[in-house]
Design a protein that fits this description.
By secondary structure, the chain is mostly beta strands. Helix content is about 5%, strand content about 50%. It has 7 helices and 33 strands.
Length: about 725
């Protein structure tokens, strides 16, 4: 094998480590998860009698109170703690507790991104969604399809658990176990919940920094077909097709999405040898998903979620040391299968629900360098059996008890290894007098290799009378088991060897904050302080030939927001995150953690049919390494981006949309050595058999009956409803 090919693989290995770990202290080169049930997160729409319109929907809509025709007055993400104002949609979430819960009851630092947010902001991928979420730094090495890592509250990229309809989709085959967000398209997402802070007490290993939970769309109401086509800069072509609905005891949702980006400039010109022209990345993603549910009788439901992703990325690899870009492209092909089969057994009029699930994930990565006739294949598998029961022990008091067994397996040309984990947990979720809320949990993990580990979390919240100030806090512990690759996968050609004696990383963390509504909640502001201490962190040894447990780190900061609904047609939202992430031994700033990040989003409805939106995102400087890892401690310049969005509803079946990314063509690298896309202009059309238009002609809310999750009484949801923001969609 040639030296160029060997180094190209070394470069791929190094970039995987650096881009996805950004290791804390590196100063040189569950079961109570949300169910797969399609009925898990239906939209809960509550319009008090005094606020409901007397208008009667047309017959074609009457059967489709499921069409979610809600007022789009300045749709924005907003704090999960924000409950809805009279007539607004009441946000419900699952991730912090494992139980469908009105967001206003939660103490967790949580961001909710809804289907409406995704459509208004025209997000195409999950990284697009996460870019403006507070507390997160997104590193995407080269645009669509390139390796994408997320650093939450200053923790490592492999310290965040990622769930898709309750399936743990973390990549067993990745070198450090970090999830690569690059291949998740947003076409069929109903809701995303980004939960910040230690969550191992409920979710186990990988949840030191937090949880990213994705819930896909479920079928409801009459058959509904949707399709969209988009084209634009960088030879981009995006298509989606969906069919969903329900019939008596059966509900279904089928989606197909295709994203092609044929010419993304990635390689900085200064890295190219004289006279060589840069080759843009070429990315192709085909995603197929189904979500099915059948009520066999009043007490027994079976559900199924299947998602298959087939992607190919052609990119410019490196050769030499220090490296320089190759003259020909390399190939990175990924096939991912995510599957959950589930049975839900209800007893005692729904007050006791048992969930029995089987989860299977398979991720296969194929990498080939120029002149390499063989390539390298890495396969990661996860098989998980789980059970949990949700019992209503008293009004507003729920108990979750569960157990799970998981087996992870990695296979390469030179390695086959596996590890298992068993766990049990218990959680109490309580509400008192509709003003005090508490979540407490404890979990015991028994790892085949690392033995017993106990984690826990306590999160109280209180809403003060008169001022309606919400005070919240949480304290929790976490741990992260080493990945199979870190334990067993050697790279002798690169002089790098695994360490089977690694110990799990551990953490303790807490946060405390407040949220304050003003002017009948037309204005809301709040702030949260967070602090994390991490020990036994996995880092390089002094010779960079292996990994060891050496480092300690501290991350702390604040997440602050203010939102205002200026008029019924204009709203604005601003977020600011300060993060201090340092090596506890040296006091040096950790890699790829910017100290400051802020964003402002304004949304305006000049006409009932027209929605306009603008976002400004600012990310400050951070400490980084060069593209090949040969030099560290360099300063990556910050950047400011301006994005514009607009859509026009021609009628209830047809919508035109357009967007401008990076309006001022800001040239920046994220991370160092990888150009981010410049100015991009895109446009397209979306059609639906019904419900593409979300407002009535007179901009008034149509009368919509509450849609309540199965097993939760409508009166219970309404009793828990807390007057809040007039925004229709939440975010913190």
């Amino acid at each position: 094998m040639s030296a160029a090919i060997i180094f190209n693989r070394r470069s791929l290995f190094a970039s995987t480590i650096l881009a996805s770990v950004g290791s804390v202290g590196l100063n040189a080169p569950s079961l109570a998860q949300q169910s797969a049930s399609p009925n898990l997160l239906p939209p809960i729409q509550i319009a008090p009698p005094s606020a409901r319109s007397t208008d009667v929907p047309p017959p074609a809509r009457r059967a489709a109170s499921h069409s979610r025709r809600t007022t789009r007055a300045a749709p924005q993400q907003r704090p999960a703690g924000d409950a809805a104002a009279p007539g607004a949609t009441v946000p419900v979430v699952v991730s912090p507790t494992g139980i469908v819960t009105p967001a206003g009851q939660l103490a967790s630092s949580l961001t909710i991104v809804t289907e409406q947010d995704i459509q208004t902001q025209q997000y195409r991928t999950v990284p697009d969604i996460l870019n403006t979420v507070p507390g997160l730094n997104v590193i995407q090495a080269g645009g669509p399809g390139a390796q994408t890592s997320v650093f939450m509250r200053g923790t490592n990229a492999n310290h965040t658990k990622v769930l898709l309809d309750g399936i743990d989709i973390g990549d067993v085959g990745n070198a450090n176990g970090a999830f690569d967000y690059a291949h998740l398209l947003a076409a069929d997402i109903q809701q995303m919940e980004i939960l910040r802070g230690p969550q191992s007490g409920l979710y186990g290993s990988d949840a030191i920094g937090g949880v990213v939970s994705i819930v896909t769309k479920k079928g409801e109401g009459p058959p509904r077909a949707t399709a969209s086509i988009e084209a634009g800069s960088f030879n981009t072509f995006n298509q989606t097709l969906g069919l969903s609905g329900s019939e008596q005891n059966f509900n279904y949702a089928v989606n197909v999405a295709h994203l092609h980006a044929g010419d993304i400039p990635v390689t900085p010109p200064e890295l190219l040898p004289p006279g060589r022209k840069a080759i843009g990345n070429n990315y192709d993603n085909k995603t197929y998903s189904t979500k099915l549910g059948v009520d066999l009788n009043e007490n027994l439901t079976v559900n199924s979620v299947v998602r298959y992703i087939d992607t190919t990325l052609l990119f410019t690899g490196d050769s030499g040391f220090p490296s320089f870009p190759n003259a020909a492209q390399s190939t990175h092909a990924v096939q991912q299968l995510f599957n959950r089969e589930e049975a839900v057994w209800s007893l005692f009029d729904g007050r006791l629900k048992n969930y029995f699930g089987v989860n299977y994930t398979n991720s296969r990565a194929y990498d080939i360098s120029p002149g390499d006739p063989v390539g390298a294949i890495t396969t990661g598998e996860r098989l998980k059996f789980d059970w949990h029961a949700v019992a209503e022990i008293a009004r507003d008091n729920n108990l979750i008890v569960g157990a799970e067994q998981q087996t992870d397996r990695i296979e390469t040309t030179d390695l086959t290894a596996q590890n298992g984990n068993k766990a049990g947990f218990i959680e109490l979720q309580s509400a008192f007098a509709k003003r005090f809320f508490l979540v407490a949990n404890v979990r015991e993990d028994s790892n085949d290799r690392f033995g017993e580990h106990m984690t826990y979390r306590v999160a109280p919240a209180v809403i003060l009378p008169v001022t309606e100030t919400k005070l919240k806090a949480s304290y929790g512990t976490g741990f992260k088991a080493p990945s199979l690759s870190q334990l067993y996968q050697d790279y002798p050609a690169f002089g790098f060897f695994a360490n089977p004696n690694l110990k799990p990383e551990e953490s303790t963390g807490y946060d405390a904050g407040f949220e304050q509504p003003l002017f009948n909640d037309r204005v809301r502001f709040g702030s949260t302080y967070f602090h994390n201490d991490l020990t036994n962190l996995i880092d390089y040894n002094d010779t960079f030939t292996s990994l060891v447990n050496v480092n300690r780190a501290t991350t702390e900061g604040t997440e602050t927001f203010v939102s205002a609904q200026i008029t019924g047609r204009f709203g604005i939202r601003a977020d600011y995150t300060f993060t201090r992430a340092v090596d506890a031994a040296t006091g040096l700033q950790l890699l790829r953690r910017p100290k400051d990040k802020w964003s402002v989003t304004a949304t305006w409805l000049p006409l009932d049919q027209l929605t306009l939106s603008a976002t400004v995102l600012r990310v400050s400087n951070w400490i980084d390494v060069t593209r090949d890892g040969s030099a560290s401690g360099i300063v990556a310049p910050g950047y400011t981006l301006v994005n514009l969005r607009g859509d026009y509803a021609v009628n209830d079946q047809v919508k035109l949309f357009a967007r401008v990314d990076n309006l001022f063509d800001r040239r920046y690298q994220n991370p160092t050595g990888f150009l981010a896309p410049g100015l991009g202009v895109f446009g397209g059309i979306r059609v639906a058999s019904y419900g593409v238009r979300e407002v009535s002609k007179d901009n008034r809310r149509q009368s919509v009956a509450p849609i309540v999750p199965r097993g939760i009484r409508s009166s219970k949801i309404i009793d828990h409803w807390i007057p809040g923001s007039s925004f229709t969609t939440p975010r913190e």
